[in-house]
Write a structure and sequence with these properties.
By secondary structure, the chain is α/β, with parallel strands linked by helices. The chain has 2 domains: 28-111 and 236-319, D-Maltodextrin-Binding Protein, domain 2, CATH 3.40.190.10; 114-222, D-Maltodextrin-Binding Protein, domain 2, CATH 3.40.190.100. The chain contains 15 helices and 10 strands. The protein has helices at 2-28, 40-55, 67-76, 91-100, 121-125, 131-134, 161-171, 187-200, 214-217, 246-249, 251-259, 264-276, 281-291, 293-299, 311-319; strands at 31-36, 59-64, 81-87, 103-110, 114-120, 152-154, 181-183, 205-210, 220-222, 237-243. Strand 1 (31-36), helix 2 and strand 2 form a beta-alpha-beta unit. The longest helix has 27 residues, at 2-28.
């Protein structure tokens, strides 16, 4: 009898050991799937979060997508997190998902932002200070950089909500812009056009935002918007968005993102180092983390690694 009980005990212990090992293996194989847009700010921000999560033992995957595809993938659970939810600018895309409860507004990670059309200061000084000024006879032809008789707005990646705001204004003839063209490009392509125009003091109107190194490189002015087609400056914030259920599936990751907040100054520096100085985004992220461990301590306060260790200790072991 004792022999049988001993045998059962040994088998039970082996079973528990294997089962526990399975749980550990499962934890170590947890994958955090980021979506990101090819915007410098969200690109480096994603690399910062990625480096920290990988240090905590997570398998991290980052996929570059366009805006609509990113939100669709979050809603279906094919992505876990997106760090670039500009609200209210992107509400047109996001509201259906919020209403059906398939995307969660997890936390604001950046505030004090500006996002709207901008012009170089020399254009502002010449009298263009509002959207209402753009189509005035004395100004409109100066924005015809293509020489085809139609003035242009310059934008970024197709599908971006900022592009859509301007395209809707053109389609609705808001501010008399009905015969203007919209040139969608990429962030890098648009800024290349701004650089070329600024060098020759040609007139250009384009999508601008803060934080970004463009505000350091050029003296820019953001157009007044009496009809309020854009959110008011300062009202725009950037949210961390997640798929529904992340809090249950990966509570430590969820807590990390609830505490993950950056300042405009930090993000402007990331963008400058990545885009202007042309450093790889992962190097920008690693250097910043090493020099800001006090900030990281706040982000990972109370958070454990996949092995159950204190995240703060593991991160400091690597970066100090």
């Amino acid at each position: 009898m004792k022999t049988k009980l001993a045998h059962l005990l040994i088998v039970s212990l082996i079973f528990v050991f294997l089962l526990g090992g399975g749980f550990v293996a499962q934890a170590k194989n947890q994958k955090v799937r980021f979506g990101y847009i090819n915007w410098p700010g969200v690109t480096v921000k994603t690399h910062v979060a990625r480096a920290l999560l990988e240090t905590m033992g997570y398998n991290v995957e980052a996929t570059q997508l366009q805006v609509p595809a990113t939100y669709k993938a979050l809603s279906t659970g094919d992505l876990d997190v997106f760090l670039g939810g500009w609200i209210p600018t992107m509400l047109t895309y996001l509201e259906p998902y919020f209403e059906e409860g398939t995307i969660e507004k997890l936390e604001v990670n950046l505030n004090e932002t500006v996002y709207r059309n901008a012009v170089p200061k020399y254009v502002w000084d010449a009298g263009v200070r509002s959207f209402a000024d753009l189509d005035k006879p004395e100004y409109r032809d100066k924005f015809d950089l293509n020489g085809d008789g139609q003035p242009e707005f310059y934008g970024i990646e197709p599908g971006n909500e900022g592009n859509k705001i301007v395209i809707d204004a053109i389609e609705n003839d808001t501010y008399g812009l009905g015969d203007w063209d919209f040139v969608a490009s990429s962030t890098a392509g648009m800024l290349s056009q701004v650089k070329k125009a600024a060098k020759n003091e040609d007139w250009i109107v384009f999508l601008g935002w803060k934080p970004h190194w463009m505000n350091i490189e050029w003296d820019l002015k953001y157009l007044k918007d009496p009809k309020r087609i854009w959110p008011e400056p300062g009202k725009e914030v950037v949210w961390t968005l997640s798929r529904v259920g992340l809090d249950e599936d990966m509570p430590e990751v969820y807590q990390f993102f609830k505490q993950f907040k950056v300042t405009p100054a930090w993000q402007s520096n990331w963008i400058y180092e990545y885009t202007y100085e042309e450093n790889p985004p992962e190097e920008v992220a690693e250097t910043w983390i090493k020099n800001h461990l006090d900030v990281v301590d706040v982000w990972v306060y109370g958070v454990e690694t996949v092995d159950g260790e204190r995240a703060r200790d593991v991160i400091r072991d690597k970066y100090e």
